[in-house]
User: Which sequence fits this backbone?
């Protein structure tokens, strides 16, 4: 088993720089989720670790070994692709066995490993089928099986669940997590779905335009987002942001309401409040003019505007509530975040 | 159309029967002529029903000296020549073009696009256009009257390379990447993955190229002077001209019938793959 180390990893296509120096230290057996908006370079990063893209500058270490110049097959990794990339003309068994066969493993050992993987993934009944005779979820499992049989040091996943329907996605998400725990293989998992990221990762790397915005545990990212970008990306529904003026201990909202400032600052700043951290309170300082309600059953989302301004706000209430549109609701703030107005960086508490 | 009207059905069937009759009539007459004595074919009206000399004519055509009085080889020999040429052209073209398509699609090498365009340009140079220089080369190499001379110049062409290039471009990149992670080198990838995935296309191309090779006329005519090397297509033409007396229709028609069989056999044998190869899109 082995950890992964990325040292100032840079990728350029011609003059366009896609990744601007990524550093990461991934412990043995850890599962890292790389998350970010489309086009931020997630796949590129993963493919560099896999050896499918050349490294422009920097180093990649797997275990103690610098793998920059090694072929993918020599890196002791396994990758699960978004479209699975199963060989259409081979049966499930042959698909899983192909890599082992090339390595010159004995037939008995190949059979043992394929059977073992088939048991783990409940693929036994399908071993002699071709990929096109399988459902999406089953194909996904075959792709996983192909990774497992290699007993690699590292698993790489590139949005492996995005072709599945919502229900199956939740189920497979849990399976991947359990499997990874059970096998204890160091993993990098790429997704743009923040729920997937929060539930799967030991740690999350939030990538924005080829730069790491924050790298930490899901709770750390949720409770102490390092920037407006991370704060808006992690958590659903997304955090509310309001421009404020900080005077001493108070943050003054655009409509003049005063809140306790969560950090030391002076002048303009951005205040962040999660929808679930605002609680209804007749005497609360935050007044919201209700516009639309979304009843989710377990919760109610209130969409509206900060009273007297055009700033949109979302509040999440427990259970079923029915405040009327047009009414003013007042809230008391719980946890608040303060960010620099210009750079978007978190201001020290 | 799921309409079910009797008169419409009748009309459709009549139209189809008429079409089949138009196509089948010449073949039927060929067959009938091949089963009568030579003399019977010269009397009007020509017979429309088969006679009783089919096997006799078949034996005379295959093993006799073809046409009495003419300088042609027995027809089995010419069928064999045609077969070797057609198979050689089909197999050679497929082998060369699949390898060059592999190189063009999957490898980055200097002047890759230049080579691509060079191959492309040969599309504009079918045998008929380059026939004199090609003859010169083949004759200098001493390949006249040989199977090599018959096949090699016809193998070089670009159409098949293009087709394989298109086929390879439809195979997702991830397939190659997956194979790389599995440790397959270029040749293994070619052998284990590309070839099986192109199976139906190879079959379709084989059918087309076999018929192309079988029907070659001008080139074999030019380079075979030895009667033991001539092909069946040439011999039919020669039989028509060679006869000083009136043409021996029974033998000529039997030869034509025999010449039709191999392409038909290839089409029937490969029909399923052939249709798949032309229509299948998902990889
Ligand atoms: N071969 C290439 N040549 C030039 N630019 C490229 C190439 N491949 C990717 N890019 C660019 O690199 C950037 C990052 O691409 P990448 O595929 O890593 O994004 P991603 O984060 O995986 O996005 P998504 O969530 O949509 O998959 C994109 O802006 C893309 O246009
Ligand atoms: Mg991607």
Assistant:
């Amino acid at each position: 088993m082995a950890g992964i180390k990325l040292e100032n990893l840079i990728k350029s296509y011609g003059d366009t720089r896609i990744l601007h120096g990524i550093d990461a230290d991934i412990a043995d057996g850890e599962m890292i989720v790389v998350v970010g908006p489309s086009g931020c370079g997630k796949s590129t990063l993963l493919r560099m670790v896999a050896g499918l893209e050349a490294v422009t500058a920097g180093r990649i270490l797997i275990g103690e070994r610098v793998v920059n110049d090694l072929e993918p097959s020599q890196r002791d990794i396994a990758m699960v692709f978004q479209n699975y990339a199963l060989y259409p003309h081979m049966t499930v068994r042959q698909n899983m066995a192909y890599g082992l066969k090339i390595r010159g493993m004995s037939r008995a050992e190949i059979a043992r490993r394929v059977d073992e993987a088939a048991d783990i993934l409940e693929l036994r009944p399908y071993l002699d089928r071709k990929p096109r005779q399988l459902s999406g979820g089953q194909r996904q499992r075959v792709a996983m099986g192909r990774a497992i049989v290699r007993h690699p040091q590292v698993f790489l996943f590139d949005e492996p669940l995005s072709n599945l329907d919502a229900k199956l996605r939740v189920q497979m998400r849990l399976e991947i997590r359990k499997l990874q725990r059970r096998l204890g293989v160091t993993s990098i998992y790429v997704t743009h779905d923040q729920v997937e990221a929060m539930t799967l990762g030991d740690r999350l790397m939030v990538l924005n335009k080829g730069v790491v915005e924050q790298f930490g545990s899901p709770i750390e990212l949720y409770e102490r987002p390092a920037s407006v970008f991370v704060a808006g990306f992690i958590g659903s529904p997304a955090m509310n942001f309001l421009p404020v003026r900080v005077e001493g201990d108070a943050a003054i909202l655009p409509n003049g309401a005063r809140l306790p400032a969560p950090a030391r600052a002076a002048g303009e700043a951005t205040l962040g409040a999660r929808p679930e951290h605002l609680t209804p309170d007749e005497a609360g300082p935050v007044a919201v003019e209700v516009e639309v309600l979304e009843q989710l059953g377990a919760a109610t989302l209130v969409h509206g505007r900060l009273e007297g301004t055009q700033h949109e706000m979302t509040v999440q209430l427990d259970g079923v509530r029915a405040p009327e549109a047009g009414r003013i609701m007042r809230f008391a703030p719980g946890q608040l975040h303060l960010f620099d107005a210009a750079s978007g960086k978190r201001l020290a508490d | 159309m799921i309409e079910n009207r009797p008169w419409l059905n009748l009309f459709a069937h009549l139209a189809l029967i008429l079409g089949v009759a138009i196509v089948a009539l010449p073949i039927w007459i060929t067959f009938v002529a091949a089963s009568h004595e030579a003399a019977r074919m010269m009397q009007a009206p020509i017979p429309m029903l088969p006679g009783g000399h089919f096997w006799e004519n078949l034996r005379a055509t295959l093993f006799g000296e073809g046409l009495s009085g003419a300088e042609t080889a027995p027809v089995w020999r010419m069928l064999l020549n045609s077969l070797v040429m057609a198979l050689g052209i089909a197999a050679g073209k497929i082998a060369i073009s699949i390898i060059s398509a592999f190189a063009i699609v999957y490898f980055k090498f200097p002047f890759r696009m230049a080579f691509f365009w060079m191959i492309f340009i040969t599309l504009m140079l079918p045998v008929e256009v380059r026939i004199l220089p090609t003859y010169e080369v083949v004759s200098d190499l001493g390949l006249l009257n040989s199977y090599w001379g018959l096949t090699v110049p016809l193998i070089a062409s670009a159409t098949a390379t293009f087709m394989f290039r298109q086929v390879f471009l439809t195979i997702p990149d991830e397939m190659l990447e997956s194979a790389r992670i599995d440790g397959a080198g270029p040749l293994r990838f070619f052998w284990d993955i590309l070839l099986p995935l192109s199976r139906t296309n190879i079959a379709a191309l084989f059918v087309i190229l076999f018929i192309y090779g079988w029907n070659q006329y001008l080139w074999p005519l030019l380079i075979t002077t030895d009667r033991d090397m001539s092909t069946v297509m040439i011999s039919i033409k020669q039989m028509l001209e060679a006869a000083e007396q009136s043409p021996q229709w029974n033998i000529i028609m039997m030869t034509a019938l025999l010449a039709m069989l191999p392409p038909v056999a290839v089409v029937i044998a490969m029909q399923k793959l052939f249709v798949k190869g032309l229509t299948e899109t998902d990889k």
